[in-house]
From TrEMBL:
The keyword Protein transport applies. Signal peptide: none annotated. InterPro entries: SecB, SecB-like_sf. It comes from the Bacteria. It comes from Belliella aquatica. This is Preprotein translocase subunit SecB. Keywords: Protein transport, Translocation, Transport. It holds the Pfam family SecB. Gene3D superfamilies: SecB-like. Belongs to the SecB family.
Length: 128
């Protein structure tokens, strides 16, 4: 089965400079989701919520990536690695670059998010 990223968009972006002192640690939190719009038999969505609490700012980003496959989406596909592992692995580098560029252009130390092993995340979620 072939999978193609059609497009993506930032749904929500919140950026706040932190002026008080005392924050000692950076925080990075990532969550993902996927859905299958009823109006299409070959399109599915993958979303990310990312929270970055840097020493000098807070950044929250929510975005959605739209994918198309070359066959009808079945229940078997919905339970497969494609929407849980493959699609997030394809999409994440775009979001990672966006956050790095955004923070660079915002005039703060650019954030370079870590690489993510979506297979490991999926296995953890399934208790493997």
């Amino acid at each position: 089965m072939k999978i193609q990223l059609l497009d993506w968009k930032i749904e929500h972006l919140n950026y706040d400079i932190i002026t008080e002192e005392g924050r000692k640690d950076n925080v990075f939190d990532l969550s993902t989701w996927h859905s299958f719009p009823e109006e299409s038999e070959s399109i599915f969505l993958v979303g990310f919520k990312i929270k970055v609490n840097d020493l000098n700012f807070d950044l929250n980003v929510e975005c959605t990536f739209r994918f198309e496959v070359d066959k009808k989406i079945t229940d078997e596909f919905k339970l497969s690695h494609f929407p849980k592992v493959n699609a997030p692995a394809i999409a994440f580098p775009f979001l990672r670059a966006f956050i790095s560029n955004f923070t660079l252009q915002a005039g703060v130390n650019p954030v370079i998010l870590p690489s993510i092993n979506f297979t490991e995340i999926n296995n953890s979620a399934n208790g493997e």
